[in-house]
C-alpha cells in the first residue's frame, strides 16, 4: 500500500532515478538539466517574495532538497533537512544584450549530484517592471509532469510571501521517499528469482536477445568517444484532418494514435539504419497512483519497443505488431538500463537505444507567479539538447469540443553526428509515411520501407 512510512537508514533510488543517475555519470551531467525561463513584464515584482517562494517549494518537495551519492549499498537519495536546504537563488541585473548568453550559461552548469541540491534559480532584472525567472533542475529530481505542481506551488507561495506571510499548502498525502519504498516493495529483490523485478528483467532479456545493439545510421561525422548532446531541431506538424484520419486508422486496428505514429517511426528508423530489426523507445509517465499527482519527482521512465519489419507484411499487420509490443512493454516498465545492458552482455558504454518517439496530450500551460497587471511569456534557453540520435517529441491537441486539432512538435538531432540535410531527409520520410497511413495505405511494408 502506498502510504507514509518510516525512513530506512539507506534510501535507494527509485527506478527512474537510477536510470538518470547512471546516465548522468556516463556523459555530461548537464545534458540532463531541465530549464524553464519566463519573462514577467508590466507590474513590479516583489523579488524578495519570489526568492522566498522558491525556498518554500524546495522545502515542500523532498526531491528538490536531496543529494544522490554513491554508497557501499549502491546509489542513494539523501533528503536534506529543511533548515539546511537553502536553494541556490540569486538576483542578477542583466542587459537585454547579455540575457540569452547568461541564461544558456547558467542552464548549462553541471550539478554534482552527490554534493549539490538539484535545483537552482536566477532572477534576472532587466528593469523595475521587467524580470526573467530561470529555474534549472536536474532530471533526477523531476519529470515533465512535475512542472505543473511546481509552478502552481510557486505561485501560491509567491502570493503569500508578497502579502507578508508564509504559505499554507495543502498537505501532501505521501512524499517521494514513500513512493520509492512502495515501488521497491512491489518489485522485490533481484536475488529472488520469483520477484517482479527478476521477472521484468527476464522479460527484457528474452525480448531483446540477439537484437542489433547499434543501428548503422548514415552519420555525417564519426561518433565522438564522449557523447555530445549539442543539438538542433526541426518543427513538425500535422493538420487536424490528418490527426482525425490517424485516429480513425488507430480505432479500426484497436490501437492508439501513439501506436500508429510509432509504426511510422519504426519504418523510418529501419530505413535509415538499413535494418529490419529495430529497437526504439518511448516514455511512460510512471504516476500509476492518484496520490502521486501533486508530487514533484522523477517518475517517468523509458521502455523499449523491438519491432520486426517484415517487408511482405501489410501495414495493418505492422500496426498490430506495434500494438502488441507496446502493451507488453508498458507492463514491464521498471528495469534500470544499466542492469539490462549487463544482462544482455552489451557494452555499457553504448546507449540502450538510439531513437525515441514520445507523444503527449496537450494540457493547460501552468502559470508562474504573476500579477494580473503583468504579462508572462516563456523565454527559450540555449540550444536544444539531443541526447539520442533520432528524437521526436510530439503533442496531440484537441479543440474545446474535443475534436482533433492537430499534432505538432519537434524532431531533435545531435549536430555532432548529422548535418541539417540528413536530418531533414529523415523528417521528410516520417512525414510521408504518416500521411500515407492517414490516407489509408494498407499495402506491403516493402513499399514504404524501400521506396517511401
TrEMBL record:
<dbReference type="GO" id="GO:0047527">
    <property type="term" value="F:2,3-dihydroxybenzoate-serine ligase activity"/>
</dbReference>
<dbReference type="InterPro" id="IPR023213">
    <property type="entry name" value="CAT-like_dom_sf"/>
</dbReference>
<dbReference type="GO" id="GO:0005829">
    <property type="term" value="C:cytosol"/>
</dbReference>
<dbReference type="GO" id="GO:0043041">
    <property type="term" value="P:amino acid activation for nonribosomal peptide biosynthetic process"/>
</dbReference>
<protein>
    <submittedName>
        <fullName>Putative non-ribosomal peptide synthetase</fullName>
    </submittedName>
</protein>
<dbReference type="Pfam" id="PF00668">
    <property type="entry name" value="Condensation"/>
</dbReference>
<dbReference type="GO" id="GO:0009366">
    <property type="term" value="C:enterobactin synthetase complex"/>
</dbReference>
<dbReference type="InterPro" id="IPR001242">
    <property type="entry name" value="Condensation_dom"/>
</dbReference>
<dbReference type="GO" id="GO:0031177">
    <property type="term" value="F:phosphopantetheine binding"/>
</dbReference>
<dbReference type="GO" id="GO:0009239">
    <property type="term" value="P:enterobactin biosynthetic process"/>
</dbReference>
<dbReference type="GO" id="GO:0008610">
    <property type="term" value="P:lipid biosynthetic process"/>
</dbReference>
<feature type="domain" description="Condensation">
    <location>
        <begin position="10"/>
        <end position="445"/>
    </location>
</feature>
Amino acid at each position: 500500500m502506498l502510504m507514509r512510512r518510516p525512513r530506512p537508514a539507506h534510501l535507494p533510488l527509485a527506478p527512474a532515478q537510477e536510470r538518470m543517475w547512471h546516465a548522468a555519470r556516463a556523459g555530461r551531467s548537464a545534458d540532463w538539466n531541465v530549464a524553464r525561463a519566463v519573462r514577467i513584464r508590466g507590474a513590479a515584482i516583489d523579488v524578495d517574495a519570489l526568492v522566498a517562494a522558491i525556498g518554500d517549494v524546495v522545502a515542500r518537495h523532498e526531491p528538490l532538497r536531496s543529494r544522490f551519492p554513491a554508497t557501499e549499498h549502491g546509489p542513494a537519495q539523501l533528503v536534506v533537512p529543511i533548515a539546511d536546504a537553502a536553494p541556490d537563488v540569486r538576483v542578477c541585473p542583466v542587459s537585454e544584450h547579455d540575457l540569452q548568453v547568461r541564461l544558456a550559461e547558467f542552464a548549462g552548469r553541471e550539478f554534482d549530484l552527490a554534493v549539490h541540491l538539484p535545483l537552482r534559480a536566477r532572477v534576472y532584472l532587466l528593469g523595475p517592471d521587467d524580470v526573467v525567472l530561470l529555474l534549472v533542475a536536474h532530471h533526477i529530481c523531476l519529470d515533465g509532469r512535475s512542472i505543473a505542481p511546481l509552478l502552481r506551488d510557486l505561485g501560491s507561495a509567491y502570493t503569500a510571501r508578497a502579502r507578508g506571510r508564509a504559505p499554507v499548502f495543502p498537505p501532501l498525502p505521501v512524499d517521494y521517499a514513500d513512493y520509492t519504498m512502495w515501488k521497491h516493495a512491489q518489485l522485490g529483490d533481484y536475488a529472488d528469482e520469483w520477484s517482479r523485478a527478476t521477472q521484468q528483467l527476464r522479460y527484457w532479456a528474452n525480448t531483446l536477445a540477439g537484437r542489433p545493439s547499434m543501428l548503422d545510421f548514415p552519420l555525417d561525422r564519426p561518433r565522438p568517444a564522449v557523447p555530445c548532446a549539442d543539438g538542433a531541431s526541426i518543427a513538425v506538424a500535422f493538420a487536424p484532418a490528418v490527426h482525425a484520419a490517424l485516429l480513425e486508422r488507430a480505432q479500426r486496428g484497436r490501437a492508439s494514435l501513439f501506436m500508429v505514429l510509432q509504426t511510422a517511426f519504426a519504418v523510418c528508423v529501419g530505413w535509415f539504419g538499413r535494418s529490419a530489426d529495430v529497437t526504439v523507445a518511448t516514455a511512460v509517465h510512471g504516476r500509476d497512483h492518484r496520490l502521486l499527482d501533486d508530487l514533484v519527482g522523477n517518475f517517468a521512465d523509458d521502455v523499449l519497443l523491438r519491432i520486426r519489419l517484415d517487408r511482405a507484411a501489410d501495414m495493418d499487420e505492422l500496426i498490430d505488431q506495434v500494438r502488441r509490443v507496446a502493451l507488453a512493454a508498458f507492463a514491464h516498465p521498471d528495469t534500470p538500463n544499466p542492469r539490462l545492458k549487463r544482462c544482455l552482455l552489451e557494452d555499457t558504454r553504448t546507449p540502450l537505444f538510439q531513437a525515441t518517439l514520445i507523444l503527449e496530450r496537450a494540457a493547460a500551460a501552468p502559470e508562474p507567479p504573476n500579477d494580473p497587471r503583468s504579462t508572462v511569456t516563456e523565454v527559450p534557453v540555449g540550444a536544444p539538447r539531443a541526447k539520442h540520435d533520432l528524437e521526436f517529441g510530439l503533442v496531440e491537441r484537441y479543440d474545446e469540443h474535443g475534436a482533433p486539432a492537430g499534432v505538432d512538435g519537434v524532431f531533435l538531432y545531435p549536430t555532432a553526428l548529422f548535418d541539417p540535410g540528413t536530418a531533414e531527409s529523415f523528417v521528410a520520410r516520417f512525414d510521408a509515411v504518416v500521411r500515407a497511413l492517414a490516407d489509408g495505405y494498407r499495402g506491403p511494408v516493402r513499399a514504404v520501407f524501400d521506396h517511401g
